[in-house]
Design goal:
CATH superfamily of the largest domain: Type I PLP-dependent aspartate aminotransferase-like (Major domain)
CATH architecture of the largest domain: 3-Layer(aba) Sandwich
Radius of gyration: 21 Å
CATH class of the largest domain: Alpha Beta
Largest sheet: 7 strands, mixed
Number of helices: 12
Strand content: 5-15%
Number of domains: 2
Structural class: alpha/beta
Shape: globular
Length: 381
Amino acid sequence: MIRLPRYLDDIKPFQAVEVFQAAQALEAQGRSIVHLEFGEPDFPTPEPVKEAAIRAIQAGHTRYTHSLGIPELRETICGYFRHKYGVAVDPEQVLVSMGTSVLMQLVLLLLLEPGDEVILTDPTYACYSSFVRIARGVPVAVPIREADGFQVDARAVARAITPRTRALMICSPANPTGVTMRPAVLRELAGLGVPLISDEIYHGLSYAGTEETALAHTRDTFVLNGFSKYFAMTGWRLGYLIFPPEARSAVMRLHQNVMISAADFPQYAAIAAMTQALPDCERYRAEYDRRRVFMIRRLGEIGLPLRYEPAGAFYCFADARRFGGDSLRLAMEILAGAGVACTPGIDFGPGGEGYLRFSYANSMENIAEGMERLGAFLARR
């Protein structure tokens, strides 16, 4: 008999995927659907990246690699951090693996005993609390509010710390809000005496001010980043972790047992991404910004005004409570009635209920069509 552990009962479905699958079913019936639910770049992977991958395959880079990743890529990542943030990183503190989700899970397995706590914001990325539970930890939510610009309150975080707290998980620019954390807030969080797990996967996709890595404020941090978002490489499944030096042995042992190593030839493509594809990526970023401004304006015009600035990533998180408090039901009604797919706010925690997340990682033409359809639908309610 198969006996499933009870903690799996607390692993909730990813509602963005539920909406997407419902949208696919409608498309199979011939319906036209505008997809604004997923945070996946609609731009192609830059040509220098693809060409580097082809050369790597032809050169025979199709085998296991060092469990931390090939030295050339780890050195490139360190150079990138030196140039972009002015932060020195040792290549022996860098682990390359199959995407940041795997690395997030590895960090939590490294830090947590059963019952240990990890502080998260509410709302936050849908999978964070599931990652904590899979590691047999306890997610502790600290609410953030639109009235405060969805900025984290360091004093509220401090009040949430207990003897069982093992980490504070942050993301800037943030999913689902698109908010970039103010440097002063990041400094305060770094000074609370709790290890940071800093998800920086949306770095590069900021449209106001400069980006700071958590490493600029504390070495007691685990920084995660990768190539999916800024470099338009979601399907390549490649991310990296920068960890404190004292964790090296444990990080290597865990990764060797769980993954052995990252795939070989995509690592050479990642080197090209960081050294040759930045002009392409900056063009992508400029276009995202254009779409961002357009979507913010149109949401306001159709009755979903934002009372904060989403200055990063590619998301707008709109308060839709005037149209209904059940965000999943509302998202499904919009899908059926308007042919627009968006993500219900409840996906991101109780603090997101009543909100809808719209992604502008789609063409301007499709976004304009989606806003037109959505406006007509809401006007009938």
